[in-house]
Predict the structure.
Amino acid sequence: MDFFHVLVVLLESTIRVSVPLVFAALAGLFTERAGVFDIGLEGKMLGAAFAAGAVAAVTQSVWMGLLAAILISIVLSLVHGYASITQRGNQIVSGVAINFIVAGSTVILGEAWFRQGGRTPALGEGARFQTINLPGADAIRDVPILGPIYSDLLSGHFLLTYLAFAMVPATWWILYRTRFGLRLRAVGENPGAVDTAGISVIWLRYRAVICCGILCGFAGAYLSLAMTAGFVKGMTAGKGYIALAALIFAKWRPKNVMFACLLFGFLDALAIRLQGTPLPFVGQVPVQLMQALPYILTVICSPASSARPSRPRPAAYLM
Amino acid sequence: MSTPYAKLPGWVEYGLVPLVNLAVAFLVAGLVVLLVGENPFEAAYHLINGAFGRGEYIGFTLYYATTFIFTGLAVAVAFHAGLFNIGGEGQAYVGGIGVALACLWLDQVMPWYVVFPLAILGSAFFGALWAFLPGWLQAKRGSHIVITTIMFNFIASSLMVYLLTRVLKPLGSMAPQTRTFAEGGQLPKLDWLLSIFGLNVGTAPFNISFLLALAAAFGVWLLIWRTKLGYEMRTMGHSPSAARYAGIRESRITVIAMMISGGLAGMMALNPIMGEQFRMQLDFVQGAGFVGIAVALMGRSHPGGIIPAAILFGVLYQGGAEIAFEMPSISRDMIVIIQGLVILFAGALENMFRPAITRAFAVRGQRAAAVVQTKGA
């Protein structure tokens, strides 16, 4: 039963670290399906995490923090939208610019406002998300196999965790079962046709970008209001890029995106778990290799599918 | 929006438009200074004073500029081939291995002018190696070069921590760095160059790699505009389909352009390692690889634009240190913001002010034409 216990713990932390990836990758799904490439997921997430941490610390309200995160993330999305949709600038350059602006300003503003070395003050009970115990979780904890799966693996997560996984079918439904979704996919694959049908390409793409902003806002809020109690500088640590890689790996499909994010999350959790423990046959693995593992695997995994024809081919892809 | 812009005079196209974009970027940066509760004019004063106030300060400004010329050229070469190499940071970091190996091997027995060429080759080799894999993955598997180069930055960072804490560190030492190089691993300063202008370079590490950077800039100009390879790279950058139609092998150009780009980024390591620290330390690149993106965009990927752009960022780095000293709430991270704003306004939004400027010149042109007509009548 020891192996089973380890597995449950590992999967539980997989879910925990996958949540921001799921939000961010779904956010990227909306814009990329609409033909706007977005390398700025990282920056939006970081900006949202800072806004959430700062506002929640000042107002002592977790909801105000969440709202601020979403607002900031939408504003950053609109900057990206203005540059890449209205001005037809280079989308990658615009995304990179946003990442830098956010990386610098979160540190400068955080230091100027709170003077804690780029952190926001630690949040108390009411100012961050609490875990939710599903009904009956305590009652069946002792049941073998099912008990731990239900009580430890599925129960005891944050509201945002459940929201993230609920967003997967929701995104699928929006994209494949609504008129908005159909048009959104069409504008990515053939903007000319959408234009001919008398639908505004620009307004559609702006709406896609706003959807991306909302989801990145949730991702950032999760980092600073749920996973940790406050903002730490550079806390996204490449998650935005990993989410992007997961999105490409999953060929821009919601269900696959979720599994890709869980895979990357699992590797991350495994890397944390294996630090300092010698492996059979290999011996002690240097901690740096374990830290680099998610990035190495992203390189190995992400490319294979991006050259396939199923990739959406928006006219506005520049590079 | 899709109508082509009227042709502007050269000095407007390459002078005024970038300057207007730059001015807006600094205006927004000034707003951030206001938001922090400081006076932007005072910050600007400390910036200029810190960068040019004394011969020593100028030496530091040019020292930083040297670094940014290398990384700016690296990004520019890839840009010409239509590739966005965002991994200059990692390539420069890994390039440091080549410099360190050359110095550790020969510094005690050979003079600097023997070690230096070997270190150049070593740094370019390791930098190119680190850029080869993303280039190869893009060429063979169609993986997105932006994502792979970003991942390689993270991997480089872990690799270098491993090497500096386990392999390259001298026995019995705790600090994650190589031993200090002897005479042969130290580049001579360019104090004579500044003393021509009556300036005393003082302790500034302004060294001979500045001349190498200028030579590299000339070399890049030759490569891009005067060789067959450069022509093929530019063709691919402008129109991949035209390049394919002309029989240019895309995968070959992708890999070669990335390796040249990585080699130039790697050569950046010469400046801090052999020119200032005389040892390889953790995080010696300090974001210079990313600054290269802003420098290349501002300099419009032309060596003639990259050198002034690199000097401007040298001013920001050196003057920024002075601002951080005088105004503690404005730390070095302010430069990251300015960098992002420059990338935004000089890169993604480069055409934002162009219609207005074009209109202004069109009006002027019409007036001039009207004057000629009246005179003619």
